[in-house]
Design goal:
The structure is a single chain. This protein is α/β, with parallel strands linked by helices. It contains 13 helices and 19 strands. Strands 2-1-3-4-5-6 form a six-stranded parallel beta sheet, with helices on both faces. The chain has a five-stranded mixed barrel with strand order 15-16-17-19-18. A three-stranded parallel beta sheet has the order 7-10-11, with helices on both faces. The chain is globular, with a radius of gyration of 23 Å. It binds 5'-deoxyadenosine (5AD) and iron/sulfur cluster (SF4).
Length: 483
C-alpha cells in the first residue's frame, strides 16, 4: 500500500543480495516468476489464503504476510481452498493449538484433491519445540514452517520450497533486527495496527508469550512516527499501538522514552484522528500516562487493563507484581480522572491452587470496578511455564463452574455499563455496513462500543456524530446527527 516496490528492476541472474530489505525483494521477484509461470500453465492466477488465529499482533503480522503474497502476485482470498494456504498461529491457550491441528486435518483433505497445493505455518505456536517435532513426524504434508521472528522472510522460504526442500523449517529462538519496510496489505483502509515493541519480559507464571515472542524490544520513536505519518498519507485516521506491555515501552532504547511521551509525539501527527493502544500492564501504568490520556484529543476513551485475578495471593504466584488493593486504587484513579473512559479487562479462572475464597476476591474486584467489558479465560496449562509444573492444578469441573459464575456477573455488569451513554451524541468511526440489516452501518465509539445506525457504505472510514438512542446490551442503536 504505502510502500512502492519495483520488482522489475531487480537482476535475477545475479546472486541474492545479503542486505535487507533488498534480499526479500529479490526473492519476491523470484517467486513472482514462479507465479507467472503457474498462470501461464494453468490459465489462472494462483490463489492464496491467510488464516489468522489469536491477537491483534498476529492480525498485524498477517497484513505484512498478505503484503508479501500480493507483491509476489497471488490472488488473495478468504477461504482455504487455495493454491497456497498459510496459518498464522497462536499458542496462548491450548485450545488455540487444537484448532490449528483440526484445520490441518481439513486442509490435508484439500491437498489430496490438489497435490500442488502449498501449506505453510507460522506464528507463536511454531516457536514451541514439541510442535515442530509433531509436525515433522505426523504432518509431513506441511511445506513451510516459520516462527514469530522471521515473518518478513516469507518470500525467501517460499522460494526455497519451490526450488529444493520438501519441508522448509526456519525457526529463530530470538528476534534479530525485524525488517519493517516490506509491503503491507492492510485489511482496513482507514485504521491500522502499529507495532511499537515486540516480546515480553514479564514472565507471568501462566503465560507462554515470553517464550514464544522473545525478550521485550522497543522500536525507535522516530521509526514509529514516520510509519504512522506514512499510514496517514495513505488514508488511515485511527492507529492501534501494539505491544504486550505498552506501559514499559522505551525503557531499553538508546535514549529511553516513556510510553506517555511516545503518545504525545503520535498525538502531534497531523491528520491522525484517533489513537488506541494495547495492552497495558497495571504494574507499569504511570500517572503521566493518565494525564496524557486525560489531556489528549485523540487518544480513545478506552483502557484495557488485565486483572487476571482479584486475589492478592494468586496474583503473587502469577508473578503479576501488584495486589488487589493496588489494582482497585489504580482503577479508581483512572475512573476519577477520566470518567467517560471504558475500562475492560482479562481474567483467568482456575489458576493452580485457586480456592473458593480466591475466586470470591476476583468476583469482588469485578463488582467494585464494574468493568465495561471483560474477556474471561479458563486457565490453560502451557508446557514450560512455571504454573504448568505446580502440583495443585484445579479440576476442570470446578474451574468451569467458577467460569460460568464469573461470566454471568461480568456480562450483567457490562450490559449495565455499556448503556450508560444512552441519549448522548458521540462520534463514531464508521467501520462497515451491517450485514444483518440493509441500509444500516456499524460505527465504533471512542470507548470501543459499537453503534448501529442508518447510513450508507460511502461513509466507511469517516467519523460522524451519532445519537445513541437505545442500548442493546453490548451495542447501541443510533441515528446520525446533522453535522
Ligand atoms: N491460560 C489462560 N489464559 C491465559 N492468558 C494468557 N496465558 C493464559 C493461560 N495459560 C490470557 C491472559 C492474557 C490474555 C491475552 O490471555 O488473561 O491477558
Ligand atoms: Fe503474558 Fe504477562 Fe507478558 Fe502479558 S505481561 S504477555 S500475560 S507474560
Amino acid at each position: 500500500m504505502y510502500n512502492e516496490w519495483n520488482l522489475d528492476s531487480i537482476d535475477l541472474t545475479k546472486e541474492p543480495p545479503q542486505e535487507e530489505p533488498a534480499r526479500q525483494c529479490y526473492f519476491m521477484a523470484k517467486c513472482r516468476e514462479w507465479v507467472q509461470d503457474f498462470a501461464h500453465r494453468n490459465k489462472r492466477i494462483p490463489t492464496a489464503s491467510i488464516q489468522t488465529f489469536g491477537c491483534q499482533m498476529n492480525a498485524r503480522d498477517s497484513e505484512k504476510l498478505a503484503g508479501i503474497l500480493e507483491q509476489i502476485g497471488f490472488l488473495l482470498q478468504e477461504n482455504e481452498n487455495a493454491d497456497f494456504v498459510l496459518y498464522n498461529t497462536c499458542t496462548v491457550r491450548d485450545n488455540a493449538n487444537q484448532r490449528v491441528y483440526g484445520r490441518l486435518g481439513y486442509v490435508h483433505s484439500l491437498k489430496k484433491q490438489n497435490p500442488a497445493m502449498l501449506i505453510a505455518l507460522c506464528g507463536c505456536m511454531m516457536q514451541e519445540e514439541s510442535v515442530i517435532e509433531k509436525l515433522r513426524q505426523s504432518y509431513r504434508f506441511v511445506d513451510i514452517v516459520f516462527g514469530t521472528h522471521n515473518i518478513y522472510k516469507l518470500a525467501e522460504l517460499l522460494h526455497l520450497r519451490l526450488t529444493c526442500c520438501r519441508m522448509v523449517v526456519d525457526i529463530w529462538p530470538e528476534g534479530k533486527n525485524a525488517v519493517e519496510t516490506l509491503p503491507v496489505e492492510r485489511k482496513y483502509s482507514y485504521k491500522s495496527g502499529v507495532n511499537i515493541m515486540y516480546g515480553c519480559n514479564n514472565f507471568c507464571s501462566y503465560c507462554i508469550v515470553p517464550y514464544v515472542r522473545g525478550r521485550e524490544k522497543s522500536r525507535e520513536p522516530e521509526e514509529i512516527v514516520s510509519e504512522i505519518e506514512g499510514l496517514v498519507k495513505d488514508g488511515v485516521i485511527e492507529v492501534m499501538l501494539l505491544g504486550q506491555n505498552v506501559n514499559s515501552y522505551g525503557r531499553n532504547l538508546k535514549s529511553p522514552l516513556s510510553f506517555a511521551e511516545l503518545l504525545r509525539r503520535v498525538e502531534a501527527i497531523e491528520g491522525l484522528q484517533r489513537i488506541r493502544f494495547m495492552t497495558s500492564h497495571p504494574k507499569d501504568l504511570s500517572d503521566e500516562l493518565i494525564q496524557v490520556m486525560k489531556e489528549s484529543k485523540k487518544i480513545c476513551r478506552h483502557l484495557h487493563l488485565p486483572l487476571q485475578s482479584g486475589s492478592s495471593r494468586i496474583l503473587k504466584i502469577m508473578n503479576r507484581r501488584y495486589d488487589k488493593e493496588q489494582y482497585l486504587a489504580l482503577a479508581k484513579k483512572i475512573r476519577d480522572e477520566i470518567p467517560n473512559l471504558s475500562l475492560t479487562t482479562d481474567i483467568i479462572v482456575g489458576f493452580p491452587g485457586e480456592t473458593e475464597e480466591d475466586f470470591e476476591e476476583t468476583l469482588d474486584v469485578v463488582r467494585q470496578v464494574r468493568f465495561d467489558g471483560a474477556f474471561t479465560f479458563l486457565y490453560s496449562k502451557r508446557t514450560g511455564t512455571p504454573a504448568a509444573a505446580m502440583e495443585n492444578q484445579i479440576p476442570k469441573e470446578t474451574a468451569q463452574k467458577r467460569f460460568d459464575r464469573l461470566l454471568a456477573l461480568v456480562q450483567q455488569i457490562s450490559r449495565e455499563m455499556d448503556g450508560r451513554d444512552t441519549g448522548q451524541v458521540m462520534e463514531a468511526l464508521v467501520e462497515g455496513t451491517d450485514s444483518q440489516h440493509e441500509g444500516m452501518v456499524t460505527g465504533r465509539l471512542s470507548n470501543n462500543i459499537m453503534v448501529h445506525f442508518p447510513g450508507s457504505a460511502e461513509w466507511i472510514g469517516r467519523i460522524v456524530p451519532v445519537r445513541l438512542l437505545e442500548s442493546r446490551g453490548f451495542y447501541y442503536m443510533g441515528r446520525m446527527e446533522e453535522q
